[in-house]
Amino acid sequence: MNVGENIHPVFDRMLGREAKEARLGQRGLAIWLYGLSGSGKSTIAIALERRLAAEGFFTQILDGDNIRSGLNRNLGFSDEDRTENIRRIAEVAKLFVRAGVVTLTSFITPRRDLRDLARGIIGPADFCEVYVSASFATCAQRDPKGLYAKAAGGGVPQFTGQDSAFEEPESADLVIPTERLSVDEAVGLLHRQVIDRIRTV
Ligand code: ADP
Asked: CA 47 to CA 134: how far, in whole Å?
């Protein structure tokens, strides 16, 4: 949808991003964690946020179930709704990033076109694409939310990896192999990847 003729954005008159980043003493970045349900996105996002907070960074997590129970509660899991889900989340992440906030997102984002959509909305310079990797079998064994057991009995329509495809990435900034790493190691790997992009000194 295009900006309508009666809509007049006022971005040029607002306080700029640089002023906000200077105030916070950091640079905004969207850390886009994606992967199957149960791969470890939320666990890693929560642990990284705590570590960054302890180091003095200002952060915000956008998490799948939280967003789907609020902002996106009218959306389901059809291809069209998954696209709209990611479009809205990326627009929200962009607002946070441009306010200087280190923004961690935790969404399955199963298709490459969805990852490209998010990168396009947020902008490549502010986007860090992180594939949180674990096989369907491992995720099913972990099953932190009981979804895999439910899906096996047909209780979760369009379940990703079963009825709905998950496309492996061709180009991620970082792949975190959570089957081979502890949570601490996974967080350490991600921290090393992002720290130079968010600190100013
Ligand atoms: P998601 O947010 O991707 O749906 P969760 O973070 O809710 O997944 O669940 C991941 C599960 O896998 C948790 O129970 C977590 O303790 C476990 N786990 C095991 N190893 C790792 C790892 N290296 N990184 C993240 N989670 C891990």
From this structure: 18
Sign of CA dihedral 85, 67, 188, 186: negative
C-alpha 196 to ligand 1 mean position (Å): 25
CA-nearest residue, atom 24 of ligand 1: 183
In the chain, what is the greatest distance between 2 CA atoms, to the nearest angstrom?
Answer: 55
**Residue 68 pLDDT grade (very low, low, confident, very high; cuts 50, 70, 90):** confident
Which domains, from first to last, does the chain contain?
A: 24-198 (3.40.50.300)
Which strands make up the sheet holding 174-177, listed edge to edge?
A: 59-63, 102-106, 29-34, 127-133, 174-177
- Supply 184's token pair: 């601490």
Give the three-state DSSP class for 175: strand
Q: State residue 105 phi and psi, 5-degree precision.
A: -115, 145
Instruction: Report the C-alpha dihedral over residues 187, 190, 196, 200, rounded to 10 degrees.
Output: -50
Radius of gyration, CA atoms only, the chain:
17
Could you give the CA distance from residue 63 to residue 104 in angstroms, rounded to a whole number? Answer: 8
At 144, the pLDDT band (50, 70, 90 cuts) reads: very high
Ligand 1 binding pocket, CB closer than 6 Å: 35, 37-44, 106, 142, 144, 178, 181-183, 186
Read off the pLDDT band of 177 (50, 70, 90).
Answer: very high
